[in-house]
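JOB MANIFEST
job_type = single_chain_structure
chain_count = 1
residues = 302
[input]
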Amino acid sequence: MNDDFAAADDLAALGARIDRSNELLQRVLAEVAKTPSTHAIFVDAGYLYAAAGRLVAGTEDRRAFELDAEGLLEALIDRARTIFADSRLLRVYWYDGARRRIHTAEQQSIAELPDVKVRLGNLNANNQQKGVDSLIRSDLESLARHRAISDATLIGGDEDLVSAVEAAQGYGARVHLWGIEAPEGRNQAEPLLWEVDSQRTFDLEFFKPYVARRTAASYDTAVSRPTREDVRFVGAQIVAKWLAARGRESLAELLPGPYLPGPVDQDLLVEAEGLLQYSLRGQADLRRALRDGFWEHLQGQY
């Protein structure tokens, strides 16, 4: 009889433990369901400059063309936001080379952009990047191992990146390879294409707004640098002009912000430079002031 009671007590205790375990599991699953997935963008700048320069400007020589890195990065972030609709951006990682790993002025301006982390390898005497692939692998593997990202978008083409892809996938992350249209043949290694979870290629029309051959200065270099308030006012001027010309409905689609679609942001930049007679390329603080003025005026109209 006593044995029967003891057995019943043991079963009851076991049932209670199972119930507590199930309750805990349900809580964990509920938390996981509420936690948004996260993606990051990894940009091999050497590949981007070479492939985009060849496609748009007909040359891989960085000195021969200008890259609007800020505008391009925002366009890439917008595209990722569309593709990974239920995911949040961790950040953009920008990998480039520099002598003695000291930032150039252009790299510094990119590093100052929000949600962008610049990581530098070295440049040898032949201007070849060294150590960039290992930096990409280290970051990809670390973020995947710590479950900091569920999806990684990789913009690059070197076969040496295969090990980085495999490392991230080994920890459960999905890796998506984004490439740049090649005028002839391919500019991404086949083994890399085989390893990734998905592929996407951006064409000439996507890159044209952000790459331009260097020519004689378009604006008078003697013009002094405008203040942030000057640029903010120009942003407000432009949106007021657009409201009158394009109609309220067309601009209402941009709300609530705070990001502008790539083509709209490029139109804003070009028009502002015309009004200011001053180039805002590579001027991250002034570009932000321009957008601030744009959004402040637009939001005030609705």
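[summary]
Strands lie at 37-44, 65-67, 87-98, 116-123, 129-130, 151-155, 174-180, 198-202, 211-213.
The two ends are 79 Å apart (CA to CA).
exit_status = 0
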